[in-house]
Amino acid sequence: MRKFQKLLPFIGIAVLGILVLVWLLPSTSVSTVSHDMDMAPESQLPVFLMTANVDTRNAYRFAIVNHHELEKYPCTCGCKYMGHMSNADCYVKATAPDGTVSIFDQHASACGICVDITLDVMRMMREGHKPIDIRAYIDQTYSKYGPSTDTPLPLA
Questions:
Q1: pLDDT value for 76
Q2: How many CB atoms are located within 10 Å of the residue 60 CB?
Q3: DSSP alpha helices (H): ranges in 101-147?
Q4: Neighbour count for residue 14 (Cβ, 10 Å)
Q5: CB 68 within 8 A of CB 89
Q6: Which of 23, 38, 87, 154 pairs as cysteine with 72 (C-beta 3.0–4.6 A)?
Q7: pLDDT value for 6
Q8: Chain centroid to CA 144: how far?
Q9: What pLDDT, on the 0 to 100 scale, is given for residue 101?
């Protein structure tokens, strides 16, 4: 018993040291993306996203492949004054005749509202929600941030 009592301070210091080491280790970011989402590979991201956080990169990766899906949902960050018509315009400026992205918009790379809307769309799609229900959620949740783009309602 006495030997154990003598070791107690050392055990406490060891546990504290382990906790500090775990805290100092770089965290491995858990992606908000499920493997069943259609996403462009990282290699298709534009250079201006090289230092962007994982959520912003994932939102762009989703927008590259699913920009027509994002056309169903508004953005409320005020980008309507930049001529944007939907959340898709925050990522994609132009598409080629084959539907691939030909020019990226850098706006969403610096706008958390745009990215948050896209991440919510992705999450709700994974959960199986219909576009009309996703739109209602986006309208209700994000209307407090600013004027909405003039995005037509999706069909039910």
A1: 98
A2: 29
A3: 112-126, 131-142
A4: 11
A5: no
A6: 154
A7: 59
A8: 19
A9: 93
User: What residues contact residue 134 under an 8 Å CB cut-off, 6+ apart?
Assistant: 72, 73, 120, 121, 124, 125
The one-letter amino acid at 139: D
Residue with tokens 């745009």: 114
Tell me phi and psi for residue 124, to 5 degrees: -70, -35
| C-alpha 25 chain-centroid distance | 24
How high is the mean pLDDT of the chain?
Answer: 84
Secondary element (H or E) of residue 101: strand 101-104
Residues 126, 36: contact at Cβ < 8 Å?
yes
- 19: part of which helix (H) or strand (E)? helix 2-24
- Dihedral angle, C-alpha 151, 72, 51, 106, nearest 10 °: -40
Cβ-in-10-Å burial (0-12, 13-18, 19+) of 32 comes to middle
Token pair in block for residue 104 = 């990226």
pLDDT tens digit string along 30-89? 344 444 789 999 999 999 999 999 999 999 999 999 999 999 999 999 999 999 999 999
